[in-house]
Amino acid sequence: MSAPHDTQTETVAASRRDFLRFSALGLAAGAAVAACGGPGNAESAAAPAAAAPAAGGMPHPDTNHTGGTIGAHPRTPQQVRAAADAMDAHHEAGIKSFPAKTQGKGNQKMEPRIENGVKVFELTAAAQKWETEPGKFVDAFAYNGQVPGPQIWVKEGERVRIVVKNNLEQSTAVHFHGVEVPNDQDGVPFITQPPIKPGETYTYEFTAPNPGSHMYHSHHNAAEQVGKGLLGAFIIEPREKRAIENVDVDYVMIINDGSHGYTINGKGFPATEPIVAKLGQKLRVRFMNEGMMIHPMHLHGMHMTVIDKDGWPQPQPWKCDTINVAPGERWDVIVNCNNPGTWAFHCHILPHAEMPNGMFGMVTALVVQP
Amino acid sequence: MSAPHDTQTETVAASRRDFLRFSALGLAAGAAVAACGGPGNAESAAAPAAAAPAAGGMPHPDTNHTGGTIGAHPRTPQQVRAAADAMDAHHEAGIKSFPAKTQGKGNQKMEPRIENGVKVFELTAAAQKWETEPGKFVDAFAYNGQVPGPQIWVKEGERVRIVVKNNLEQSTAVHFHGVEVPNDQDGVPFITQPPIKPGETYTYEFTAPNPGSHMYHSHHNAAEQVGKGLLGAFIIEPREKRAIENVDVDYVMIINDGSHGYTINGKGFPATEPIVAKLGQKLRVRFMNEGMMIHPMHLHGMHMTVIDKDGWPQPQPWKCDTINVAPGERWDVIVNCNNPGTWAFHCHILPHAEMPNGMFGMVTALVVQP
Amino acid sequence: MSAPHDTQTETVAASRRDFLRFSALGLAAGAAVAACGGPGNAESAAAPAAAAPAAGGMPHPDTNHTGGTIGAHPRTPQQVRAAADAMDAHHEAGIKSFPAKTQGKGNQKMEPRIENGVKVFELTAAAQKWETEPGKFVDAFAYNGQVPGPQIWVKEGERVRIVVKNNLEQSTAVHFHGVEVPNDQDGVPFITQPPIKPGETYTYEFTAPNPGSHMYHSHHNAAEQVGKGLLGAFIIEPREKRAIENVDVDYVMIINDGSHGYTINGKGFPATEPIVAKLGQKLRVRFMNEGMMIHPMHLHGMHMTVIDKDGWPQPQPWKCDTINVAPGERWDVIVNCNNPGTWAFHCHILPHAEMPNGMFGMVTALVVQP
Question: What is the pTM of this model?
Answer without folding.
Answer: 0.86
